[in-house]
Amino acid sequence: MMKLSDATMGLLKNFANINQNILIEEGQKIRTMSTMKNILASAGVTETFPRSVGIYDLNEFLGVLSMAKDADIQFEDSHMTVSSGKTRIKYMYSDPSILTVPPQTFNAPDIDVEFNVDKEVLQNILKASAVMQLPDIVIADGGVIVTDLKNTTSNDYSVELSTTISDTTHRCHFKADNLKMLPGSYHVRVASSANVSQWVGEVADYWIAMEATGD
Asked: Which domain holds residue 33?
């Protein structure tokens, strides 16, 4: 029997924003990858999963867990049993072959740019992107600009970073829709040659592809 902690539930809700399906592998790490393969996320959890579990619709699964207060989960050969008091729910596993599964090995590219983005800054730039309908986030010269690079008359939102960027000559361009991290502060490590970034947080790590800057 296993209970999922609030922290693990929050992590799964976040991962559902990246991909609606997931293969939770045996052990204490949960990983997911977007269908476009431009976001890879991983996090350690306190629970130890006794077997690999394929879930086709993660939001549906989280809804099932919400139907059973303080649920116990029993992992069977073909399904899991979610129980709470007199309630029993049978939930079938999905075949891993129909799921988007991260690669077993990942060779991290060489990092050449590093900087920090604190929780408040991340929250504000994502809010600005949503409210002002601006799709592009550019980090350079010690600050962040939220804008629409395809519109020469675009509104924009800018904010300074509290820490310096190790290479101020490099512009890091992200699509706001790809920044699906848990709320929090992150240390960002950029591999400019591969046009990819690693966002290292207290709870989870995210590898996120960057956009071409046109430099």
From this structure: 6-98
